[in-house]
Specification:
The protein has 574 residues and is an alpha/beta fold. Helices cover 62% and strands 10% of the residues. The chain is built from 21 helices and ten strands. It has helices at 2-11, 16-45, 52-80, 83-100, 104-109, 112-152, 156-203, 205-210, 214-266, 272-284, 287-290, 292-313, 370-377, 400-404, 421-425, 434-443, 447-451, 470-484, 500-513, 549-553, 558-565, and strands spanning 332-341, 344-354, 359-363, 385-390, 393-394, 407-410, 488-492, 518-522, 534-539, 542-547. The strands form two sheets. Strands 6-7-8-3-9-10 form a six-stranded mixed β-sheet, sandwiched between helices. A four-stranded antiparallel β-sheet has the order 2-1-4-5, with helices on one face. A hairpin with a 2-residue loop joins strand 1 (332-341) and strand 2 (344-354). Helix 6 runs antiparallel to helix 7. The longest helix is centred in the middle third of the chain and has 53 residues, at 214-266. It starts with a helix and ends in a 9-residue tail after the last helix. 37% of the residues are buried.
Length: 574
């Protein structure tokens, strides 16, 4: 339990003082709750000679107890009730910043369902339960300890017995912790599996239906739901009995205190007011502790979720420097670079010079490393060997964001956000005017279809651009790149989803976009590579040919073979 509180304090940041204050107020609340015992004792002590003055004094003690308890409960609520949401709101934002700076390889290696579960279910549980668990645990222990100290001045034996009851309950709590430790990870895994399967089913439902296997995919989701149900049930079954035993310990200890108080009175060790006071205490001393059973289970659940949070949020950072890249020319040099995913080598000792204001086309079979090479130039990943230089400077020595300020990218698989078309284009230049957006759209050959939409540029795009065709999405992406007007352009088969009647217009727009710029183009069509200043052919992560279209046609090799085939083969389109 103390471990859980320590860990939450470690990540609390600016809310740490509020939690400590809340715990202090909680202890003071327990103190004033125990003070009520003195009011009862004062009445019982003067029971045979009860006067208005005695009643008034007792009433003052009880009233002070009630007011004190209310005040410190109010202060505790003010400092702690919303603190969990403050802590994990800030934590979400921190993770968001880390995700922005993570290498793209992190997302390919991680289970997206795990990341989503962590950002939603896990953090939501911590927001709702962490402060509740801290409040109940500190309140329960503080109440018993403080009342036991008070009882010590009345009768040491009763005080010692009450402390023994506390220790006995805490031993049972250790058992609860051990049982919870066995099942909390299983519950967490089942939750992540459920989210992953549900996301996979939703995203792939069109494919499943097209192959008439929709029910097969649904069965996988049902299995995930069943696994989650099994985990929930086993967790409850494993801890329910132990939690009842925990409550029973305090009930039995209360009975023992009542019996001891009665025996002490019978044998003349204490008088009637003391006996009745002890009987009153027997029913109240463990009241808050009995509520700790659920908190004890919660504390282990929270510890497990904090473990998962640390594991998933230990996001590798691509930036090791805060320096911003500042360059005056835009030559790109790949100095014998190599890169791989886990044990699979993708780029092998590539050396390439792309002079400023020239075009370089990258061609090759699918899986040869073309897109990976461009991602290394844009510093989505860092090379494992060699150096990538832009403007003569090693990109590793500068922030990834500052490197990308000089680069516009158009991806083969375009993702658009659930927002207006205009705002999606404005990602290239957030402060752009509508006239600038419209001009970029015209150059990208998408102004006409945007204008034909009911709300024009204010039309809301479905998540991922689901309401647009592939070609429409790609042209909007090109408009975004045109608006950014970066000196280096990377095109990952920018014309792959464009219909034939628009292709020439789009190629003309790209030509305008890339005038006086450094252009790198991954291309599968002859029309997009034949005019490049240099063409490199990649196979199995190595450059196997380089030259112009004319020179490569005169050589035996992959490039000429592709042209001769005149059809699609391993990702090459003519």
């Amino acid at each position: 339990m103390l471990e859980m509180i320590r860990r939450i304090l470690e990540i609390a940041g600016r809310s740490k003082k509020k939690i400590i204050a809340g715990i202090t107020f909680n202890i003071m609340k327990s103190f004033f709750n125990g003070v009520m015992m003195f009011g009862v004792f004062w009445i019982l002590l003067h029971l045979e000679n009860l006067t208005f003055s005695v009643i008034l004094q007792a009433w003052g003690i009880v009233a002070g107890s009630v007011v004190g308890r209310f005040f410190f409960q109010w202060m505790s609520d003010r400092t702690m009730s919303g603190t969990g949401y403050d802590i994990f709101r800030d934590y979400r934002l921190q993770i968001g910043e880390k995700l922005k700076q993570a290498p793209m390889g992190y997302f390919s290696e991680q289970n997206l369902g795990t990341i989503q579960t962590m950002l939603t279910t896990t953090i939501s549980d911590l927001e709702g339960y962490s402060m509740l668990a801290i409040e109940q645990m500190t309140s329960g222990i503080a109440m018993t300890v403080l009342m036991s100290i008070m009882l010590f001045f009345f009768n040491p034996l009763i005080a010692i017995l009450s402390i023994l009851g506390l220790l006995g309950g805490l031993l049972v709590l250790r058992w609860v912790h051990r049982r919870a430790a066995q099942y909390a990870p299983i519950y967490q895994e089942a939750q992540e599996n459920l989210v992953s399967k549900a996301m996979e089913y939703i995203r792939g439902i069109s494919v499943l239906r097209s192959f008439s296997i929709g029910e097969e995919g649904q069965r996988e989701v049902c299995k995930a739901f069943q696994k989650k149900w099994d985990a929930d049930y086993e967790q409850e079954k494993a801890t329910a009995g132990v939690l009842r035993l925990y409550t029973l310990v305090y009930k039995l200890m209360s009975c023992a205190l009542i019996a001891i108080a009665g025996l002490l009175f019978i044998y003349g060790q204490i008088n009637l007011p003391y006996c009745l006071t002890f009987l009153f205490c027997a029913f109240t001393i463990y009241a808050d502790l009995e509520m700790m059973g659920n908190s004890a289970f919660l504390s282990k659940k929270i510890n497990t979720e904090l473990d998962r949070l640390e594991e998933v949020s230990s996001i590798p950072q691509i930036d090791t420097s805060t320096d911003k890249l500042e360059i005056s020319h835009y030559d790109i040099v790949l100095d014998h670079i190599s890169f791989g995913y886990d044990n699979r080598q993708v780029i092998n000792d590539i050396a390439l010079d792309i002079p400023e204001n020239t075009t370089c086309a990258i061609v090759g079979p699918s899986g040869s490393g073309k897109t990976t090479l461009c991602n290394l130039i844009a510093r989505f990943w860092d090379v494992q060997e060699g150096v990538v230089r832009i403007g003569g400077k090693n990109v590793k020595n500068y922030t990834a964001d500052s490197v990308l300020e000089y680069i516009s990218m158009v991806f083969q698989n375009v993702y658009l956000f659930h927002d207006s078309i205009e705002n999606n284009i404005k990602f290239g230049k957030p402060d752009a005017t509508h006239q600038e957006v419209e001009a970029a759209a015209k150059r990208a050959c998408c102004h006409d279809f945007i204008s034909a939409l009911p709300d024009g540029y204010n039309t809301i795009i479905g998540e991922g651009g689901s309401t647009l065709s592939g070609g429409e999405k790609q042209r909007i992406s090109i408009a975004k790149a045109i608006l950014k007007d970066a000196p280096i352009i990377i095109l990952d088969e920018a014309t792959s989803s464009v219909d034939p009647e628009n292709e020439q217009a789009l190629l003309h727009a790209i030509s305008e976009l890339t005038t006086d710029k450094t252009l790198i183009s991954i291309a599968h069509r002859l029309s997009t590579v034949q005019n490049a200043d240099q063409i490199i052919v990649i196979d199995q992560g190595r450059i196997v040919q380089r030259g112009t279209h004319k020179s490569l046609l005169s050589q035996e090799g992959i490039y000429r073979n592709f042209l001769k085939l005149k059809l699609d083969t391993v990702g090459w389109q003519l």
